[in-house]
Amino acid sequence: MFFGARARQRGTRAPLALGAGLAGLTVVGPALAGAPPKVGPPMQTGPENTLGGLSDSEIWGAIRHEAFGIATSQRPEDGVLIDADGWWWTELRMPSGPLVQGAIWFLLIVILAILLFAIVRGRIRLEGGRAGIRIPRFSLTQRVVHWTVAALFIIMALSGLVILFGRPLLIPVFGHGATSVMASAAMQAHNLMGPVFAVSILTLFATFLPGNLPSQDDIGWILKGGGLFGGHPHAGRYNAGEKAWFWTATLAGVVLSVSGILMLFPDNLAPWVAELAYGFPRARDLLHLAEIGHVVAAVIMIGFALGHIYLGTYGNEGAFEGMVDGTVDLNWAREHHDLWAGEMSGGSAGTGAAAEPAE
Amino acid sequence: MSIIEFLEGPAWKASAAAFLIFAGWRLVVILTAGRRHPGAEPIGSPLLGAVGTTLRHFVPRPAFWRRPKVWFVSLAGYAFHLGLFAVLLFAAPHVAFIRDHILGLEWAALPRWGFIVAAEFAFAGLLTLWVRRFVDPVVRLVSRPDDHIAAGLTFLVMLTGCMALGEQSVALRAIHLGLAELWLVYFPFSSLMHTFTWVFSRAVTGAEAGRRGVHW
Amino acid sequence: MTASDAPKRMDRQGDAPDTARVAAALEGFLAEFGPRASIYLNACVRCGLCAEACHFYLETGEAKYVPIGKVKPFEDAYHRTTGAFAWLMRAVGMAPRLTAAELEAWEELIYDSCNLCGRCTEVCPMGIDIAELVAEARHGMYHAGFVPDRLAEITRNAESRHSPFGTPEDFRRTIHAIEGEFGVSLPMDKPKADLLLTLAPGDLEEHHRSVVGLARILDHLGVDWTLSSDAFEATNFGYLSGNRELQAELTVRLVDKAKEIGASTILLPECGHAWTAARWELSRWYDGPLEGLRIRHIVEYLAEAVESGKLRFRQVRETATFHDPCQQIRRGGMERAARVVLAALGFDLRELPDHGETAFCCGGGGGVLSNARAEPLRLRAFELKRRQVEETGAHRFVTSCGQCRLSFDRGRAATGWDKAVESLIEIAAENLVEDTRDAG
Ligand code: HEM
Ligand code: SF4
Ligand code: SF4
Fold first, then answer.
1. Is B192 in the pocket of ligand 1 (CB under 6 A)?
2. What is the total count of domains within chain A?
3. What is the pTM assigned to this prediction?
4. Quick check: ipTM above 0.90?
5. C421 against A86, higher pLDDT
């Protein structure tokens, strides 16, 4: 079976982020004397050849069986099967390397800090009870965007963490077989949902920008520790903590989107961008940077998100309903966003209580 | 019998049969209910009215273009439904499944990138529509548990489907197939039946509109 | 929450126990579960778009006014009794249970907050005729005795005294008074006539000039017409209240009278729901078209006479805007006819932002005008119309429905708006050019 021919017929392989290492390589023929590798994915019993080409495992299988490669690509790096210059990256990225270990420790510390805060400070309750007057806080558009982003974020974060922590954390617990299944599932979901998540982050930015620009009140808020340890510093529509989350999510979102898209198109987009950046199409260096940026941004965003989720649900009484109904209790607004509450009750807070303005 | 053999064999046949029988039964009950009035002496043609209304309701009429929600539901709705149809009928694994288990014939499948883009639109549409069900007081008020179950099951079928895209594991395929079968069995009992009822609904309204010489 | 416009307390008629009320409601609902209702109730995807068309939701922003939510008890009853899996749902205890409390709670939504205007159908992706469903739901509500008191009272008058306006005796007296007041003669109870003219209570109570206008136009056309003191009522409070038995009786009464006097036409006055009840709902009681008898509305009748050259008018030459009565236009097919008459009168028509088949209701349709307690809500709908009328900048404000006019007049009185609303028929009658008969 001359499976290289098939690979060419079917054109480019699927964009596989993790398949970046095989960029541009086309295996044109197996140098196998006796037993050719089984054609078709190894554990496949379902419909045949629906992948639209060779899978990585087939190609690697062939390489391991001493297939020789002739690069059809003319790009200088594509003839290189193993990139010695990439060793620094390999060391950085391996399960015991600083990237993965740092991520594990960072997230552990965040979780412990939240637990500690929950125990010490407890739930931040409405001190004055409920006023029973609702004031509008988030429009329907904002709520839909928020929860769409949230749902996509959870899918992206969980699948991303499976990919990142598979070898150090999952294999020891579930073994190789189950982890490979999980990793495959996670990678496919991650790659497919990624572009949707990127678009959703952009809409998040557009819909939540008003009110999130830095202001003078932020300084006082930060100096008083955000009232997390008692007291209620002044705050406008959003306090400095929320603003920090907004900008973190936006910046991390941009980094994640850009690096993610580069990794989605290692064969087409990355060399082209590398050419722009370095003057020659050295995609591998670019992809190394992209992956590091992707991991760092993701881990920061996940850590911050854990805090956000805690404060948005149990941690802060009266906050969650704002993002569901769109309205908050007047006392909640006074305690957490006094300046904004002032504006609102000066303006429309009395009359604008309709849960959803019709227009 | 392995799990995947079970799901591809008896379980598949049983769920497909349940789908056909119960959906068919529901349609029969709907269409034969109660007494039918003959209708007043027509001004216009009920038949043309039925066709007109069926077509007209594919696009919101200009009088409602001022309303953002009309745009949102229409665009998200089309993104979801068109994406879903493309994936359902033209994804390579589905084409093969339909050939092997349903019709015995096949047609051209979407290239992989086309399939992925379609799935992305479908996800974006379904997710935003479903999210709105929780946060818009209007739809939250009228949503039944079934509306959430239908959306949730569909979402899970789609999600497991895209997780099985690597086609490296029988387990993933089995999960997707099992959920799809569950979805099929649930379908006739749920609001997913609008897949079939939409055309009747528009048509009966249109027939009355045609009779009255108006354009509902 | 804003202070709601909803009534604080619901009305109930009679003293039947709750279980009997629920049973009666079910019986009324069951009679309505034909293929149409059945298809609709199985097609809704709960997208909520219908709210985007309904003036009650648009003006109040209150989610409870989402149209499809208004028929919940009706829908529950369907899934309990008639739906494809009703047996299964009952067996596993998941069938919705109808309670008197629910019926009572829905009284406001079914009667006060729906004009049966049909605008929501136009936006519904499934094209569901929610107005039809609400009208059907009223059938059960009426039987259960959950009707707004004022509407129930008017309906009882229609039943016991011949008409909400009064008895045949009251009618004769009023017609004589109008004859005296305007110096016209109005033929009554002729044993034979080609056309039976019917009137609405509003014509007899307030809009006497409309009666005179109708007479003048018919005389001008040389029609052999009559009023009938035992079949004069054009409106149908059976239809509005959900009393289907009365609805049948009122329709059959008109048809029988017309047959008795050998009329070829029953002419309906400037009223919207009269047209719906007599023209479109007729087939509930008659299988097939009526032999040799047509039910006509004065608006289409007038337009036809204009187009055949039998009527000519002095030219008004002023700007005007026109309120499209829902039952005549969106649900009645006379959008063009009304504009033919307006154009013949020489009006420079400035259409409302929403006009024709997508016009908004005046707020009074579907029995809401007769339902006194619904006034605060009705005024919200009126506000929308008022804004749109002012937006046109037109001098005159014309419509072709007496109920709409009453509804606007109440709204004007409550809000101090000085824009008079005029009758198309009255304007037409006043501007008739008398010599056309020779010309024609
Ligand atoms: C032309 C035919 C169809 C029309 C007009 C239509 C219309 C709609 C609309 C307007 C919604 C939005 C509901 C919302 O706002 O949440 C919806 C949702 C949905 N539709 Fe369809 N649909 C059609 C066919 C189908 C088909 C064939 C399927 C599946 C095979 C399907 C599955 C769904 C699902 C799963 C949802 C989301 C669940 C929900 O929110 O209720 N639809 N449909
Ligand atoms: S617009 Fe139609 S389908 Fe949507 S909720 Fe209303 S009635 Fe149901
Ligand atoms: S028929 Fe008219 S009043 Fe009734 S729910 Fe629909 S839009 Fe609202």
1. yes
2. 2
3. 0.88
4. yes
5. C421
